[in-house]
Every structure is written in structure tokens, then in C-alpha cells.
Amino acid sequence: MARVTYGALITNIAGSIGGSTFQNNASGAIVRSKPFTPVNPSASQSARQLILTQLVALWPTLTNAQKTAWNNMAAAHLKINDWGSSVRVSGYQWFIAYNLNAYTQGDAPWLIPEAYSLVPPPNAFTLSAVADHFYINWPSPETMPGTWAAVFATQPMRQSSIKLRKSTFFIKLYHASAITQLDIVNDYCNYFNLVWNSFIASTNCSIIIRQKYYNEDTGFASPFTSALIQIG
Question: Looking at the predicted structure, is the pLDDT value of residue 69 above 70?
């Protein structure tokens, strides 16, 4: 960051030029380097982007009867979104969301939906981070009968730019019984290409972890349950 002194001809600059941003704060006029996040998706990110492209291409190949099944479900049921709100979506949108769930579970695409069912969200949890571990903690044993627990996460965020509905990335699917703590450090680091020991020793950030349940027999998913941790 550098301070800026204006003269008689230039009295103010706002916005960005190249890699620098001109702005004002309590110190006066300053110029700072724009933050840069490299576009270098991991193998998991690339695979999920590919499956979405494949699902979009698959929809036009469905038979009329198959499309009608999705459209009928859309007409008969509101969809419970990730935030627990009821929304009206099209049959095509049901097809995409449902089969992203199927992909997350390791299933082949479902060409017609199962009978509609609701999936309750995971119980509330907290997060803790230490030198070698990144834990999800439940106050009482958490069991996932007939469901898979999918963990989603944000990239490390600056403390000043936290948005509770910030986009998250699918990290891994877990299946367990009566657990009170789950260590996700390796899966988180593999996804975001981090070395945890070095990262946690020097960072000052926040991370949001979200979970949702998938019913392994029907393909329907629950809303998110979320928690945030500040590190550093």
C-alpha cells in the first residue's frame, strides 16, 4: 500500500489501473495492489465442472416421457433450496440439481426421478483448527443412516470480505455412524492445493464449512447446515 498526494491538475483518482487500485480510507488517498487469485482448478474442481457440462448436454437426449416425469415433479413440488427456502423450479432445473447430487454420490445419471421425499439437514456443528488438523465437531454423536454427508467449503477468505452465502466447493462425501469429530484437513488441502502446517502458521482468514445430506436411495438432498471459523 502507498499513499497518494494529488496536485493542482489531478485532484482525485478512483478505480483500478493495471494491478493497482486507487481508493480512500482513514489515512487519506492510497493505492494498493489488487488481490490476485490464480485460476488453477484442482482435479476435483475440474471434474465437477465437466459433469455439469455433460448434464446440460444430456437433457436434450431424454425421451418425452422422461422429460415429462421431471416436469411433473416440478409442477407437483416446490424445491427446498440449499438455504431451506421453498422455490419453484423447472423440470430441467430439477434434472440438473438431482443429477449433481447423483454424481456427488458416485451414481450414474438418473433419467427419471424417484418419488419425492424431504431430507432433514445435518445437526449444528462447530469447527476447530490446529497445527495438523481441521475438525468438524458435533456436541453429540452424529449418525448418518441411509444418507451421505457431503462437505462443502469456501476458499480461505480475508476477514474483511466474509459473505455468509459465499460460494462453496464440494470437498468430499462421508458416511459414518455415531461420530463427534471428523478431521477434514487432508481433503480440504487436497482440494485447494494447500500445505496445512505452512498455511495455518501464517494466515489470517476465515473459512466456511457447509454440510448437506443426500438420501442414497432417492437422490434427494437436504439444505445446508453451516459453520464459520476464523484462523489467525
Answer: yes
